[in-house]
Design goal:
Residues 140-350 form the Histidine kinase domain. This protein is of the alpha+beta class. It has nine helices and twelve strands. It has a five-stranded antiparallel β-sheet. Strands 7-9-10-12-11 form a five-stranded mixed β-sheet. A two-stranded antiparallel sheet has the order 6-8. Helix 5 runs antiparallel to helix 6, helix 7 (203-216) crosses helix 8 (239-254) and helix 8 (239-254) runs antiparallel to helix 9 (316-325).
């Protein structure tokens, strides 16, 4: 039978668990007593494994910071540092607001708010707005292009029925084939028309399907590495659309000159996509060691017909983004020469 204290602790744990701010509790030796899920997510560590370890097990701690924390404990004072640059032990760099509060039990409560996270969310919102505007523009253009194309094709068919000369009919066939080709191109620019047929699926079945398709292409010059988190729960999604989205990203990596592509998955807590916050999401990373994305193209990379390759159609990334958006998710990327990573975030629940 739970005691009132047990209920209170459970309620506190629930409240801390839904906080978007990373919270860490340190003892007077600067060892970790507690991390909430936001802190686990920020530093990509497990609370179960890291509790009891020194604070320096998650962050590279300078002597100055170490001294400030010990002084705070000794003098029972709190302090705030704005826009502090932190480096996690996994090498991830971040800019944070760092608040230190002393407790009545000679402990330190660290509140860490990532500043560049706000920039990421603002960029995502801008990206989603731009995507919606681009799709509306494309729909309008498609309507204006497809209507006269239909008339053109119908007129060519009528003309062909009136022609007796077989050689002249070849010209009407050319008109009809080109009209069909242009109509198909416009349809591809618009992306899939069908609503997603969602059902419970395992995301690793999607990734394995993509892996088998790439292997079947027999490109031995490229090493495709898989790093999966088997604990990810099933999600409600259209597997065909997700296969197409992931395949487009993997093919984009293959065409970048990479000889090593890593396909990885993991669960991510407290994820903000656009203006909505989700407690849990699936994260799929497709990273490669190719030449990277040209700096001038980064802002338009998800627009249709934008490509850095002469033989490219510029539709693969646009279609992938559209399919993931239909699952309330988003595709982000970071890129520099020799290291590019596309990330698919798919919420595991409604906001």
């Amino acid at each position: 039978m739970p005691t009132p204290d047990d209920k209170q602790r459970l309620q506190c744990a629930r409240l801390l668990g839904i906080q978007s701010t990373a919270l860490l509790l340190l003892d007077n030796d600067l060892q970790l007593l507690y991390l909430n899920p936001a802190a686990e997510n920020l530093f990509q560590v497990s609370s179960r494994q890291i509790t009891g370890q020194p604070w320096s097990s998650v962050v590279l701690v300078s002597e100055t910071m170490q001294k400030h924390l010990l002084d705070a404990l000794d003098q029972q004072i709190s302090f705030i540092e704005r826009e502090l640059e932190l480096t996690a032990v996994n090498g991830q760099q971040m800019v944070v607001d760092f608040t230190v509060t002393t407790t009545s039990h000679s402990e330190l409560l660290l509140e860490i708010v990532r500043r560049d996270q706000f920039i990421r969310i603002a960029h995502e919102e801008q990206l989603l707005v731009q995507q919606r505007a681009a799709r509306e523009l494309l729909r309008g253009m498609a309507h204006e292009i497809k209507n006269p194309l239909g008339g053109l094709r119908g007129a060519a068919q009528l003309l062909e029925s009136e022609l007796g000369d077989e050689e002249m009919k070849e010209y009407t066939q050319v008109i009809m084939r080109e009209a069909d080709r242009l109509r198909n191109l416009v349809d591809r620019m618009l992306g899939p028309n069908d609503l997603p047929h969602k059902q419970m699926i395992n995301i690793h079945q999607v990734l394995e399907h993509v892996h088998s398709l790439v292997e079947a292409e027999g490109n031995e010059a490229i090493q495709l590495v898989r790093e999966y988190d088997p604990s990810i729960p099933d999600l409600c999604a259209d597997s065909e659309q997700l296969i197409q989205a992931v395949l487009n990203l993997v093919r984009n990596a293959m065409q970048s000159g990479a000889d090593r592509i890593v396909l990885s998955s993991r669960a991510q807590r407290q994820v903000t996509i656009g203006q909505k916050r989700y407690r849990l999401a699936v994260r799929i990373d497709i990273s490669d060691n190719g030449k990277g994305i040209d700096e001038n193209m980064k802002e338009q990379i998800f627009y249709p017909m934008i490509t850095g390759r002469a033989e490219g159609t510029g539709l693969g990334l646009s279609i992938a983004q559209s399919m993931v958006n239909r699952h309330n998710g988003i595709i982000e990327f970071t890129s520099e020469p020799g290291s590019t990573m596309f990330t698919i975030l798919l919420p595991l629940e409604e906001a």
